[in-house]
Design brief:
The protein is an alpha/beta fold. The protein is 30% helix and 17% strand. The chain contains 15 helices and 19 strands. It has helices spanning 6-13, 39-48, 78-94, 109-115, 147-156, 181-192, 207-210, 214-222, 238-244, 254-263, 312-318, 344-354, 372-380, 383-389, 439-448; strands spanning 15-18, 24-27, 30-33, 58-61, 97-99, 124-127, 141-144, 158-161, 165-172, 200-205, 231-233, 276-281, 288-290, 298-300, 333-336, 364-367, 393-394, 415-418, 433-436. The protein has a five-stranded parallel beta sheet with strand order 5-4-3-6-7. Strands 17-16-15-18-19 form a five-stranded parallel beta sheet, with helices on one face. It has a four-stranded parallel beta sheet with strand order 11-10-9-12. Helix 2 (39-48) packs across helix 5 (147-156). The protein is globular and about 55 Å long. The N and C termini lie far apart (51 Å).
Length: 458
């Protein structure tokens, strides 16, 4: 039997049929939906007079359009209110589980799946959201799909998908103090660009990756899409198994032993080959920050903005110039949250840095937990009191200022140091200027009132 990569092992197991000179029909184990990309899919089902084929394998939550304050009140924005209500109505009509506003499991779709044990190794997972790649941290094939494909999965529990190429990204060595997984992925994106992994599924390997927590691994896989990849994954190991054990909807008892045995077979065979590969030394990675309008436009926080014709349009939008250093630049907004960095580990890191300190008076600092469970845990641990004492506003779960589809927008022309995954023009609101960074860098910036190197604090 020929050697296989982790991706090939999971992919091959889920191929229902192969269309000659065309895509594969892939069986989907878990389907997540939210209020933005699902309404038209349900309309398609109605128009054809069919139901959801396997409703038990679809989980819905409200996250993109929801407000992050006063969630017990009706949503003020008319369009947002309509979309959230549509999701509620559709789930009721088609018999789907919904974690809507007020539900104890409500939260960002890519946060609730792992924390509830719904996400598991060896699965195929899809959602009408590009950052579905987050779930690949568990050794799952997880990728975003369009609305027409959401309808496909609802109707058949399968999706048509061409088989991606494979890529290995290996990172070895210990991380320096103040360097987080967000810095790793921003560094990698700056090296291979936002198109460097186009058409590929990435497997992240190496001692640095193996040394990361599950929450840090999710951050890495979350941003695979920002390099053009179809998704990213990390082979499950003892860290994975320890994280999953005892989760609400994960396997228990005899079932746990059964699945654990299978999960331990999910690794890339020693002789397996990849279509492309990169290798990086963790010693080269320092706190990172972006200067442009795509996540690949990143640099060391102590660096200077590079020159070049490709940067000109981005720098004009950002109000920056080549050769400029961002360190020390005044910032009015800090956003800590999104499906990239809103888990309890992220909130703990921020709280540990700001404890006993006070944010700069001119900075508006928002901390958005990724789910009701994260919010509840933060309060149980007293993190809410630490954050609020430091002047940070801990709000309620949702996508929030990551994408500006709700009330949490950054004013035109103003800068926001954000722990989210995208810094496109207008991503956080019309004219907003987004600078991506890790939770520690964002917190340090809020304290100083200007872009800061967290290593100087710790």
């Amino acid at each position: 039997m020929s050697a296989k990569t982790l991706f090939e092992k999971v992919w091959d197991k889920h191929v229902v049929s192969q269309i000659q000179d065309g895509p594969s029909v892939i069986y989907i184990d878990r389907h997540f939906i939210h209020e933005v990309t699902s309404p038209q899919a349900f309309e398609g089902l109605r128009s054809r007079g069919i139901g959801v084929f396997r409703p038990d394998q679809t989980i819905a939550t409200a996250d993109h359009n929801v407000p992050t304050i006063d969630q017990h009140l009706p949503i003020k924005d008319k369009l947002s209110r309509l979309q959230v209500q549509k999701l509620t109505n559709n789930c009721q009509e088609f018999g789907l589980e919904l974690y809507g506003l007020g539900h104890q499991y409500q939260g960002i779709v890519h946060v609730i799946g792992p924390e509830l044990g719904i996400t598991r190794p060896g699965m195929t997972i899809v959602c009408g959201d590009s950052h579905t790649s987050t779930h690949g941290a568990f050794g799952a094939i997880a990728f975003g799909i369009g609305t027409s494909e959401v309808e496909q999965v609802l109707a058949t529990q399968c999706v048509l998908q061409p088989k991606p190429l494979s890529m290995k990204i290996e990172v070895d060595g210990p991380l320096a103090s103040g360097v987080l997984s967000k810095d790793i992925i921003l560094y990698v994106a700056s090296k291979i660009s936002t198109s460097g992994a186009t058409g590929h599924f990435i497997e992240y390997t190496g001692s640095t990756i193996r040394g990361l927590s599950m929450e840090a691994r999710m951050t890495i896989c979350n941003m695979s899409i920002e390099m053009g990849a179809r998704g990213g994954m990390i082979a499950p190991d003892d860290t994975t198994f320890e994280y999953l054990k005892g989760r609400k909807f994960g396997p228990h008892g005899v079932a746990w032993d059964y699945y654990l045995k299978q999960w331990k077979e999910l690794y890339t065979d020693p002789d397996a080959t990849f279509d492309a590969s990169y290798k990086f030394d963790a010693a080269d990675i320092v706190p990172m920050i972006t200067y442009g309008t795509n996540p690949g436009m990143g640099m060391k926080i102590t660096g200077r903005i590079p020159s070049g014709p490709d940067n000109q349009k981005a720098l004009e939008y950002m109000g920056l110039t080549a050769g400029e250093q961002l360190l020390g630049k005044q910032i009015n907004h800090v956003f800590i949250g999104s499906c990239t960095n809103s888990r309890i580990e992220d909130l703990r890191l921020v709280a540990s840095l700001v404890k006993g300190k006070q944010k700069s008076p001119h900075v508006h600092a928002m901390v958005i937990p990724g789910s009701k469970q994260v919010e509840q845990q933060a309060k149980q641990e007293g993190l809410d009191q630490i954050l609020e004492a430091a002047g940070f506003q801990l709000r309620q779960p949702g996508c929030s200022a990551c994408l500006g589809m709700n009330e949490d927008k950054i004013p035109p022309g103003e800068y926001c140091v954000s722990t989210s995954n995208r810094n496109f023009e207008g991503r956080q609101g019309p004219g907003a200027r987004t600078i991506l960074a890790s939770p520690l860098t964002a917190a340090a910036t809020a304290l100083a009132g200007c872009i800061s190197d967290v290593r100087e604090i710790i």
